[in-house]
Queue: 3 jobs
Job 1
Amino acid sequence: MDCADEAALIRHVLQVPGILDLNFDLVGRRVDVQFDASITSADTILGKVQGTGLGAHSHAPGEHVHDDHGVPSGASHGLTLRFIVASAVLMLAGWAVEAATADTWTEALIGHAHTDVTGGVPAAAVAGQDRWALAATGAYGLAMLSGLVPVLPRALAALRHQRLDMHVLVCVSAVGAAVVGQWAEGASVATLFGVAHLMEAWSIEHARVAVSRAVGHEPGWDGGAGEAVAGRVERYIERFASVYTPVVTGLAVVVAVGPPLMDGAWTVWFYRALIFLVLACPCALVISTPVTVVAAVTSAVGRGVLFRGGLALERAADDAASAIARGDVVLTQHAREDAPVFAGAHARRALGVIRQNVALAMLTKLAFLVSAVLGAAPLWLAMVADTGATVAVTLNSLRLLRAR
C-alpha cells in the first residue's frame, strides 16, 4: 500500500461493524486497525483487504515491521515486472516501425493525428496502403494488452467496490485512446503506468529504507509512546483528494461531450478528455504530507526531540514551548539545550516542505489540464508528468532527514 487510492479502497472495505479505528502509514505501507474482537476477527479483516487485490499479512501490536513486504507477493511482483517489460519492448517496437516510415522522428514520437480514424484503426492500415502502419498498430495493441494485464484485476476490484481509482482510469484511458485510433498513445499509457507504478513504489521504498536506517527499524509507531496523530493539513488534503478525483473525472465528461456539440470534433475532444482521466488520481498530492511528516519526525529523533505526529508538528510550528508543555513534543535525555528552538524551526521547515509539495503537485496537474484543453499535451506526457510529480515530492520530503 503506497498510494492514496489503495488506502481509500481499504478504508471503504473496512467500513463494517467491529472496526473501531484505522491509522494509515503510507510510508511504512501498513494500516493499524483497532477492532472489537467480539464482533469481527483479524482473519476476517485480512480477507476483506486481500479481496481488494492487495497482498496483506498481520503483525502483532507494537511489533517492529521488518523488511518482509515482498514475501507474500514476490512471485506476483515478478510476473507483473515481466508484463511491464514485455509491454515496453512491444511499444518500442511499434515506435521503431513508425520511426522507420515517418518523415521525422518527431512525427513518430508525438505526431499522431487525432482525426484520421476508421473503426479505431488508422485509416492507412485499414485500407492496406501501409503494411508497416498495420504492423505498428499490432505491436501497440499487444503492448497495451500486456501493460493492462497486471492492472485489470485491481481495476475490477475497485469497480466491484464502486471505487473510481487510478487503475480504472488508466484502463479507460488506454482503451479509449485505441478506440479513437491512437494506438501508440494507448500503449504508452498502459506501459508508462506500469513503469510509473514501479517508480512510485521505488520512491516510497527509498523513503522507507532511509527512515529505517535513521531509526533502526521500519517506519511505524510503537504503542502510545509515538502514536502518530494526523495533522490538520493532512486531513484537509485527504478531504480535498476525495473530492478532486470525481470532480476532474466529471470535467473529463464535460470536455468529451461539451465542445464537440459546437464544433463536431468528437475524436479530438474525446482524446483531450482522456488526459483529464490520467490526471484525476491525487497520489502525488496525498503522499506529499505523510512522507514529509515521517521524514521530519525521524530526523528530529536524532536531536532528542520526539514529535507525536503531524498535529504535533503543526502545533510546534506555532508555539514550540506550548507544544512541549502540552506533551505534543517530548524532549528525551539526549536533547540539547537548544532543543525547544530546534523543535520550532524544524516544524516550520517541515510545513514549508509540505507547502512546496502541494504546490508542485497541484501546479503540475493544473498545467496539464489546461494544456489538454488547448490540445498542447499528448496523453503519454501527462502520464510521465504525473508520475514525476509523485517521485519529486517524495524525494523533496526526504531532505528533512538531514536535520539542521
Note: The chain has three domains: 4-50, 80-197, 221-401.
Job 2
Amino acid sequence: MSNRKKIIYGLIILVNISPYLYSFYDFEKVHFNIDNMIGFYPIYGFISCLGLIIIAKMFAVFFKKEDTYYDD
C-alpha cells in the first residue's frame, strides 16, 4: 500500500472517530453556556478562518500596488 493511501485512510478514520471524543470531554468545567453545544469549536474555527480570509482580501485591496511599482 502506498503512503498516499495510508494517509487518506488515516484521515478517514480520524474524521470518523473525532465526534466520539465528546464523550470524554468534561462539560462541568466550561465557562460559557455556548461551550456545551456539540460542534461549537469546529463551527467557531470555520467562521474564524472565513473572517481571516475576508480581512486578508480587504487588506489586499487597500495595499495593492501598480504593476510598474518596481520598475520605477
Note: The CA atoms of residues 1 and 8 lie 11 Å apart.
Job 3
Amino acid sequence: MAACSFLAVFVGSIFVYGFPVFFLHIQRDLELSSASTALIFALSRGEAGIAGPITGWIVDKFDSRPIIVFGALMVGGGLAILSIVHSYWLFIVVFIGMVAVGNNTSFGQTFLAVINRWFIKRKAVAMTLIITSYTIGGAVMVPLLSRGVEALGWRSVLLYSGIFVVVLAVPTSFFIRRSPESVGINIDESPEAPDQPASGAQRRIADNDFGIKEALKTTTFWLMLCASSLRISVTSGILVHAIPIMTWKGESEQAGADLIALLFFIAIPARLFFGLYNPGIPTRYILTMGMTFGALGLFTLIFVDAGWAVYTFVAGIALLEGATTLNWVLMGQYYGRRNFATIIGIITAVYSVGMLTSPLFLGWLFDETGSYRTGLIVFLGMYAASAIFFFFSFRPTRPARPTAQPG
C-alpha cells in the first residue's frame, strides 16, 4: 500500500496531471496548432484503450514487480529521448510508444489491481488513499514542473523527470507484492475477510466474484461503463487544455498552473472525505453528487464572466474528482477481486475513445473559433448524462452457478 502510494505521488502523477504544464511550450517550440498539440496527449489516452484489456489480463495473471520495472524503464527512457526530439511525428511516436505504454502498463491499473487484491473490508479506504495519492502528486508536481520549465526550459525538465522516474520506481517496486496469496496469506482467513455466518452455507470470498461474461451480462456494468466513459472523457479533455483554458479566461500561464495545483489541493481533502467517511449514503448517490458539483463548476466557467468564476470551476471539478474516487471502489464492490483488472481494462478500452477525441475536439474548436465556449457546453451535457447513469447503477446480482452433485 505504502509503496504504491509513494509511486503514485511522485511518478504516476507526472503523467496523469503534470503533462498539461508542457502543452503551450510544446505548441510554441514545435510551431503547432492547438489541435495538433492536443493530438499528442489524445493518442496517449487512445493507446491506453487499445492496450487496456491486454494490460488488465497481464496484471491479473503475472507478478506486479516486473511490470512496474518495465514501465519505469520505458517512461524514463522515453522522457529522456523526448528532451532532444525536434520532429513532431517522432515526438508522437516516442511519447506514445514508450512513455504512454510504460505509464499505462505500470502506474495505473497495476496499482488499483494490487490494492483490490489485498483489501476486502477496507477496500474503499485503501482505494481512496491510492487514488488520493495521485491527487497529492498533482498538487505537488504541477507547480514544481511549471516553475522548473520557466527556470530550466521544458526539455531539461523532461530529461530530469525521466531520470527521477527510474531512480524512484525501480527500487520501490521490490516492496510491492502481487497479492496476499503470493506471500502465503489466505485472504479468507485474514483480517480483511468480511464477517460471515459460520455455517455450512458459508461461501468463499472468491466464489462471490463475477466472471467476465457474467459481468458483461449485467445492466449495471453498461451503465457504469457509460457513466465512467463520459466522466473520464470530459475530465481528460479539460485537464489536457487546463492551462490554455485558464489563459482563455484571462489568467497568465503561471497563474493557470497554480490554479490547477489549487484544484488538486482541494481535491485531496475531498477525496479523503468522500472515500473515508461513510454516512450511509449509497456509493452511486455520492458519485451522482460529485458529477453535479463538476457540472455546476463548469456551468459557472462558461456562463459567468467574472474573475471568481475560475475559482468556482476549480472547486466544482475538485469536488467531482473527490467523489469519483469511489468509481473504481464501486466496481470492486460489485464485481469482486478475481477479474477486477480485466473488467477495468474493458471499460478502459471504451472510455479511451473519449479520452482520444475530447482533447482533439476542444483543440479543433479553439483553432476554428478562438474560444473554448462551444466545446465546454458539450462537455457540460456529458457531465449531466454521466450523473444520470451513475444514479441508476444498482448493485448487480450474480447469476446462480450449477453446483456439483455428490457421488
Note: The domain at 2-179+209-391 is CATH 1.20.1250.20 (Growth Hormone; Chain: A;).
